[in-house]
Amino acid sequence: MLREHIPDLSKCVEPDRVRREVYTDPQIFELEMQRIHERVWIYCGHESQIPKAGDYYTLQIGRQPMLMVRGADGKISVLYNRCPHRGNMMVGDRHGNAGEFFRCSYHAWTFRHDGKLRSIPMDSAYAGTRFGKDNPDCSMKRAARVENYRGFVFASLSSEGVSLKEFLGDAIVAFDDMCDRAPEGEVEVVPNCFRVIQHSNWKIFLENQLDALHPSVVHQSTGRAAHDIEKKLAKQSGSAPLSYHMLSAFATVTIDKWDNFQTLNYPGGHSVLTGYMGLRPQDPDTVAYDKIMIKAYGQKRFEEIVGVNIHHVIVYPGLSVQSPLQQLRAVRPLSVDRTLTEIWHFRLKGAPEAIYRRSLAYYNLVNSPSTLINADDLENFWKCHQGLAADAGDWVSFGRHFGRDIEKDGHVESGPNMGTSEAPMRGQMKAWAEYMRA
Ligand code: FES
Ligand SMILES: [Fe+2]
Predict the structure, then answer these.
(1) What is the pTM of this model?
(2) 107 Cβ inside 6 Å of ligand 1
(3) What is the pLDDT of residues 314-362, one digit of tens each?
(4) Could you tell me where the DSSP H helices lie in 261-415?
């Protein structure tokens, strides 16, 4: 039982705190799906996941089973994964190739790659009825809007709303930073992704991503163990593989150092964490990569590209992007207490294999379900969600450095030496409240 009963949704969010039922109430979850996930631009996947005509990949947008598919003309469509006849899922596999058209496995209605009805067996049976090729209800339903930014495909299930570019706003830097680091200006996906189902509300994951306070607490034990081995190896052979640094940084970058970084918080709940973990040493692999980049872009542009000071970008409400390491996590809420994350990484086109191996090492060591880093986070997400059931307080606090944020040119910055500010969570919940009111 709640100690205070507040039926009004608008009263669930205050600038520095949020009612706990925002995370636990199944009715609020349904409303979130309607008003947020099934309206805004949601990441579907990368175009390189479906290189050939007929290739499809399934995904979930809000509560809707969807698929993205490439047509013979190269155009990508995003369709509801549903046959208009009796509702059968059009494809049951995660991904595959439909051939020249989709054919429903139940009664063999066929559809073009853009979803349009192609044929119904013995269709004279429908003569004089409401069904037939010209009735749009007999075609597969399409996502209202689809846009592609530098290979990253997004869809919105609402015909109304801002364009993808406008929606992304300053968070568009996530995709520019990732692609610009490729000598060919493009990335390609590495199939397949890791999938993790977290036993917690989707917002708990997003709030954690730019929570600069937690790494040196939650990941300290892993970081310390890696640091010990790193030191030992360096002593023995002069240097340790860079992958140790990816883990040891969780122990050596202490809370006061995280405070030196900064978050930039934009309208719509998007945020950027500046600061870089020092993963650009002058080792032979990096030097070889730099040479290729300078050849491709010239010295000046090269310096600009590698000088982009980003560690992590949140594209609210569905993406966490670590562009300098070509990683991306897509958030797919399943229910009020279940969240699927898809953990993808990408190759920089034209970059040496060793640079890809570096991205792969980070993927495996920091973001994969098998690393202790991820397990440490998952345990806390689950415990947060469980703890919220306690009748011991109605509010979740986002008060760290509240009142000291700096408002600047339409965005909010954490104050100097306040990188651990809870400003990103305040920004996310502000956007949440705006979407839920709309
Ligand atoms: S359900 Fe698809 S053809 Fe009948
Ligand atoms: Fe973490």
Answers:
(1) 0.95
(2) yes
(3) 999 999 999 999 999 999 999 999 999 999 999 999 999 999 999 999 9
(4) 284-297, 299-306, 353-362, 372-387
Q: Domains (ranges, CATH) in the chain?
A: 42-156 (2.102.10.10), 169-212+259-437 (3.90.380.10)
* The dihedral formed by the CA atoms of 319, 57, 77 and 72, expressed in degrees to the nearest 10: 140
Ligand 1 near 88 CB (within 6 A): yes
CA atoms within 13 A on the CB side of 373: 22
| DSSP-derived 3-state class of residue 6 | coil
Name the residue type at position 328.
L
> Before 333, cis peptide (omega within 30)?
no
What ligand has the least distance to the C-alpha of 207?
Answer: 2
In a 13 Å sphere around the CA of 111, the CA atoms on its Cβ side amount to 29
pLDDT in tens, 156-215: 999 999 999 999 999 999 999 999 999 999 999 999 899 999 999 999 999 999 999 999
Residue with tokens 């970008």: 313
